[in-house]
Amino acid sequence: MRGLLVAAGAGAAAWSAPALAPLIPSWCDALGVTRRRDASDGAVALTFDDGPHPQGTPAVLEELDRAGARATFFMVGEQVRRYPAVAAQVAGAGHGIALHGERHRNLLRLPPRALDADLQRGAATLTEATGRELSLYRPPYGIFSPVGPALARRRGLEPTLWSRWGRDWSARATPASIAAKVTEDLGAGDVLLLHDADFYSAEGCWRRTVEALPRVLEAIAARGLRAVAL
């Protein structure tokens, strides 16, 4: 019995191990998951998860437009179906469109067939709303299952995470803390994670992100960098 319990525990640990990739950069390399971009052009990539949101996304777009910056929006299929016009607005403004799943679920709880169906439906939903073919995928919560990267690649999607985050989804976050956290030790090639929606996080957190965004963009410029899409 003890041997069975040990084996079961080892199996569970192996299944869950890829979930640590956002915290252990070397695991990203092992999984073939991108967390940075090419640094040769002196740019950083701005990314936003969990949208589109009827207020948060347009507010973020306004700040980006004011600064002449570009970003990539990792959208959730179920929210795109609720707000297709907002998704189309992001695409029309020239920003990147990427998949954050059909539904915002932890991949460790999805069997391979369910995950594959999620990827297929989510990509179809985003393409229909925006007219864009997708090439990037970031899982909800940044958590990959062992089969997640391979299934994404089979769908023509590059599995992607980030190198800097603002922890703007937290109820404790403030505009100042978000800007300081996401730009800490910032350098060319970094991929920054923020959120333009609060569907899966602290209520109203997108408002603090919008307030933080001018500071973030100013910090990027002060370092002689540019904010671009992935």
Q: What's the helical proportion of residues?
A: 40-55%
Q: What characteristic shape results from the CA principal axes? A: globular
Q: Averaging pLDDT over every residue, what do you get?
A: 91
How many alpha or pi helices? 9
Backbone CA Rg: 18 Å
Q: Compute the number of strand runs.
A: 8
- Main beta-sheet annotation: 6 strands, parallel
Estimate what percentage of residues fall within beta strands: 5-15%
Contiguous runs where pLDDT drops below 50 for at least 5 residues: 1-16
Structural class: alpha/beta
Which characteristics define this entry?
230 residues; alpha/beta; 6-stranded parallel beta sheet; two-stranded parallel ribbon; disordered N terminus
What report would you give on this structure?
The chain is an alpha/beta fold and 230 residues long. The protein has 9 helices and 8 strands. Strands 1, 2, 3, 6, 7 and 8 form a 6-stranded parallel β-sheet that branches. The longest helix has 19 residues, at 112-130.
Topology:
Elements: H1 2-16, H2 25-31, E1 43-49, H3 56-67, E2 72-75, H4 77-82, H5 84-92, E3 96-99, H6 112-130, E4 136-137, H7 148-154, E5 158-159, E6 164-165, H8 175-182, E7 191-195, H9 205-222, E8 226-228
Parallel strand pairs: 1-2, 1-7, 1-8, 2-3, 4-5, 6-7
Helix pairs in contact: 3-9, 8-9
Summarize the structure.
The protein is α/β, with parallel strands linked by helices and 230 residues long. It contains nine helices and eight strands.
